[in-house]
Amino acid sequence: AQKVTQAQTEISVVEKEDVTLDCVYETRDTTYYLFWYKQPPSGELVFLIRRNSFDEQNEISGRYSWNFQKSTSSFNFTITASQVVDSAVYFCALSEALRGGKLIFGQGTELSVKP
Amino acid sequence: GAGVSQSPSNKVTEKGKDVELRCDPISGHTALYWYRQSLGQGLEFLIYFQGNSAPDKSGLPSDRFSAERTGGSVSTLTIQRTQQEDSAVYLCASGVSGLYEQYFGPGTRLTVT
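^ Those are the sequences you sent over. The predicted structure of the assembly is below.
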């Protein structure tokens, strides 16, 4: 069965701290895709990144970086030097090639960055 | 360019009434998805349209829910005989095709009284 687990329900940090959001997934498919979305207080889900199961190379985009490890079925997200504007709920999601791309979401991690 | 739009943004309805929610996807996107977000259930997949293929309805919670996509563009999600447990934010997303990133609309907040 497919499943995404984000064990951290809430995280609170002070501005400029680094923070890592954990994501663990379960799938029996060999071809799958992993995503991170941000949902700020305004409510609209914002796409951050998509990785396929054959590409374990880590990715960095500005202050954001992602660590994909198939051996531990994890796709963790790190924000370096956090800012107040990073405060949001972050969702990790999985889609499987055999199931047409529908997203299976984790429960989300609410990140609060305090000044 | 224009993103995914949804209407109405808010809908309050009485239990037992039917409601229609509309989604305008990004122009040129062949994949269209409906999800709902509620406090108890998180983000749940409802239905998926890809081009002219038969939709994947595997996430619809009951036969009171249906959706159509006309002309490969606009989609309407219909909930018949609404129940209080249908209260949620209904989100539409579109993508270039299945398996690519999905871009979400602002959602329709449905409240059933």
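The mean pLDDT of chain B is 94. The first strand of chain B starts at residue 5 and ends at 7.

Shout if you want it in another format.
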